[in-house]
Amino acid sequence: MLKSNHSGFSLEAGTDEAGRGCLSGPVVAAAVILPKDFSHPFLNDSKQLSEKRRDELRPFIEENAIAFGVSFVWQEEVDKINVLQASITGMHRSIEILKIQPEFIIVDGNKFRNYKEIPHETIVKGDAKYLSIAAASVLAKTYRDEYMTKIHQEFPMYNWQKNKGYPTKEHRDAIREFGATDYHRKSFKLLPEQLKLAL
After folding, report:
1. What residue stretch is flagged as signal peptide (predicted)?
2. What values do phi and psi take at 115, rounded to 5?
3. Domain spans of the chain?
4. Which candidate, 54, 25, 15, places its Cα nearest to that of 148?
5. Largest Cα–Cα distance in the chain?
6. Residue ranges for the binding site for a divalent metal cation?
7. Once rounded to an integer, what is the mean pLDDT over residues 165-170?
8. Potential cystine with 29: which of 20, 91, 144, 190 (Cβ 3.0-4.6 Å)?
């Protein structure tokens, strides 16, 4: 059973990101402030949910949240600032676009930078503990998946509609055969044997 609040503040935002471990595409972050009485029978950490369940949850979260924000940190920026900084930057941007500023922020994971003067707490596996972080994880994942499915049309050989840019065997085989695209993160080790390749 996920908890609805951590801090005791009523305007508590949960934040999370998707796509950190991917070889291509953006890191997408989301922040959500939920009302005290929010509940949904499926809401859980987005990794535990089927794609169909996540897609059903997204409009429900958006309609019932007090506020939500979603931001994309594109692969060029990920390469520039590194993926951890990209995740935190994305979370900050998502909080920034909330129509109401939160009084407290709970963050999935164990790394965060202060956002303005707002107190925060990092919570390992927070998306499996708190409703607002779980809701943020669903938004981040569905927006990112939708984008990866869209760019799949441009480069179907990588099968991004299925692997969403994660380092599956099929994705790596396609990089081996066709090389990297502009959507790939150049700072990532795209292939295990990359160190031996004359790049």
Report:
1. none
2. -110, 110
3. 12-148
4. 25
5. 58
6. 16-17, 108
7. 96
8. 91
